[in-house]
């Protein structure tokens, strides 16, 4: 019997390989591009407040729209509140109307929100518009990765799975670049374009084959899969695998959640999402230009923000290439250390930088010790010191995008049990966005009362906690089978399944 199975295994592998070799990815790539335009819009809307707030807080702003500290805090943070609502709403919509329609529906709050902000004549229009774009961002962040994973095949799933994050970074960079040349109202009008373009393209894209099979629409699922894979692809093997997965899926009970195999990975995922936000990445991105204005950076804040956006794009590309080569824990250690060193540097700089600046006292010794050489030396020292906040912020963003940004999402997909993934993902999304809301709202008040020193000091402490949490609680999952990971959470021991056994099982 065993010998017979061993003879059949190469035949099965040859069948799958020949089937995979007939796959045409062009239409799949088009479908993924259509969907990730929603992530582009998400990245754009997340940092919309960064170039807009300095203009709305200036004395030249429209009196009806001028913001003080409290109003600016709400304008920056209410996006996260909308994203929490949108993420939870998308979880319900994903099951009710499907992934594709959920993504398309996100264009409604996005377009209305940008129209309100672009034509704002009162403060409530700005706040409601910002909240609605947050709802759209939460919907896309929850729906698009699921849609991409369900329409992709295993040969490209890893690469396409990183597209949502990369596209969101492109959206952020696009906003920073446009803000250099476009007034803030036109920034809002431009924000409507990606979402509308996304809807037009998605009309012509297929629904998820998994979604169609779960509704009992076998013929539509077969047509959708053939459209995605190419006309010469044998769809029956993949459709059978999807149907088997649907048939064997069960729901988790409350008594099961009390066992370590369920609650330990859920707690680790939730705490990771909490710590991810507590590192301060959201307030730093949302308030980047006001932060640079207070940090006495030698370049104009709007140029600093664009430079950091470019660095973020580069760091996401680096992280994507290292994800499967280096271990998860090694990248998290590197990420935590880079963020710790950068926030510590920012803490020390902001502690020595008065905020807000007061009038300089008269220098009584100036007339005695003045020389042109001293003046040149002081100006060079000031300009080099003015670059330190920019460089430190670039290091922070690079460190975050190398580890705690993408790996938090990756580990969730690896450690969460499949039957509990829907509930656990919803819990993680809620914790993440509510933490971002509270932190983003408090950040403005902390800076106004104490300067940048206090929030940066808090972020430094959190980075130390991230290091310790990674060392004690997070398992290394690279190269491990799902059985090994599940066994780790069940027993609390190190991985006890031998590599040869897991390799044989995966084969």
TrEMBL record:
Molecular function, one GO term: dehydroascorbic acid transmembrane transporter activity
Membrane topology qualifier: Multi-pass membrane protein
Record lineage: Eukaryota, Metazoa, Chordata, Craniata, Vertebrata
Similarity-based family: Belongs to the major facilitator superfamily. Sugar transporter (TC 2.A.1.1) family. Glucose transporter subfamily.
Record has Nucleotide-binding as a keyword: no
Family annotation (InterPro entries): MFS_dom (IPR020846), MFS_sugar_transport-like (IPR005828), MFS_trans_sf (IPR036259), MFS_Trehalose_Transporter (IPR050549), Sugar/inositol_transpt (IPR003663), Sugar_transporter_CS (IPR005829)
Catalysed reactions, as listed in the record: L-dehydroascorbate(out) = L-dehydroascorbate(in); alpha,alpha-trehalose(in) = alpha,alpha-trehalose(out); D-glucose(out) = D-glucose(in); D-fructose(out) = D-fructose(in)
GO cellular component annotations of the record: plasma membrane
NCBIfam families, per the entry: SP
Sequence ranges assigned to domain Major facilitator superfamily (MFS) profile in this UniProt record: 31-478
Function (record text): Insulin-regulated facilitative hexose transporter that mediates the transport of glucose and fructose. Facilitates hepatic influx of dietary trehalose, which in turn inhibits glucose and fructose influx triggering a starvation signal and hepatic autophagy through activation of AMPK and ULK1. Also able to mediate the transport of dehydroascorbate.
Residues annotated as transmembrane: 28-52, 72-94, 101-117, 123-147, 159-178, 184-204, 330-349, 387-411, 423-444, 450-472
Name listed for the protein in its UniProt record: Solute carrier family 2, facilitated glucose transporter member 8
Cell compartment(s), UniProt: Cell membrane
Keywords of the record: Cell membrane, Glycoprotein, Membrane, Transmembrane, Transmembrane helix, Transport
């Amino acid at each position: 019997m065993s010998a017979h199975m061993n003879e059949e295994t190469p035949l099965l592998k040859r069948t799958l390989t020949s089937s995979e070799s007939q796959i045409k990815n062009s239409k799949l790539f088009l479908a993924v591009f259509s969907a990730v335009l929603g992530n582009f819009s998400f990245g754009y809307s997340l940092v919309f407040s960064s170039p807009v707030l300095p203009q709305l807080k200036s004395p030249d702003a429209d009196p009806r729209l001028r913001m003080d500290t409290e109003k600016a805090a709400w304008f920056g943070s209410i996006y996260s509140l909308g994203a929490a609502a949108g993420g939870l709403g998308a979880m319900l919509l994903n099951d009710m109307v499907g992934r594709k329609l959920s993504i398309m529906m996100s264009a409604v709050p996005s377009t209305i929100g940008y129209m309100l902000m672009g034509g704002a004549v009162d403060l409530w229009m700005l706040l409601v518009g910002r909240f609605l774009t947050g709802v759209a961002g939460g919907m896309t962040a929850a729906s698009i990765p699921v849609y991409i994973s369900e329409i992709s095949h295993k040969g490209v799933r890893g690469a396409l799975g990183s597209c949502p994050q990369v596209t969101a970074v492109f959206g952020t960079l696009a906003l920073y670049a446009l803000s250099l040349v476009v007034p803030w109202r036109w920034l809002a009008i431009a924000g409507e374009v990606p979402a509308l373009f996304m809807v037009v393209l998605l009309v012509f894209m297929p629904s998820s084959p998994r979604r169609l099979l779960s509704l009992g629409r076998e013929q539509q699922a077969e047509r959708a899969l053939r459209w995605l894979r190419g006309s010469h692809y044998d769809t029956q093997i993949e459709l059978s695998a999807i149907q088997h997965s649907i048939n064997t899926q069960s729901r988790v009970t409350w008594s099961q959640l009390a066992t370590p195999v369920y609650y330990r990975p859920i707690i680790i995922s939730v705490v990771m999402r909490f710590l991810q936000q507590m590192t301060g990445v959201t307030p730093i991105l949302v308030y980047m230009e006001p932060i640079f204005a207070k940090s006495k950076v030698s370049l104009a804040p709007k140029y600093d923000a664009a430079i950091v956006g470019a660095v973020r794009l580069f760091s996401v590309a680096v992280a994507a290439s290292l994800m499967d080569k280096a271990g998860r824990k090694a990248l998290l250690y590197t990420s935590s250390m880079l963020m710790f060193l950068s926030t510590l540097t920012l803490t020390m700089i902001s502690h020595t930088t008065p905020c807000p600046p007061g009038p300089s006292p008269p220098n009584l010794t100036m007339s005695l010790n003045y020389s042109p050489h001293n003046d040149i030396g002081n100006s060079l020292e000031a300009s080099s010191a003015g670059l330190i906040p920019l460089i430190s912020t670039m290091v922070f963003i690079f460190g975050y995008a190398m580890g705690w940004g993408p790996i938090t999402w990756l580990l969730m997909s690896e450690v969460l049990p499949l039957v509990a993934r829907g509930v656990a993902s919803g819990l993680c999304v809620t914790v993440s966005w509510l933490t971002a809301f509270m932190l983003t709202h408090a950040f403005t008040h902390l800076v106004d009362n104490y300067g940048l020193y206090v929030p940066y000091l808090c972020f430094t402490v959190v980075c130390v906690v991230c290091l310790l949490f990674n060392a004690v609680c997070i398992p290394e999952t690279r190269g491990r089978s799902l059985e090994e990971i599940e066994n780790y959470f069940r027993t609390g021991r190190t991985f006890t399944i031998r590599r040869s056994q897991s390799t044989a099982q995966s084969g």
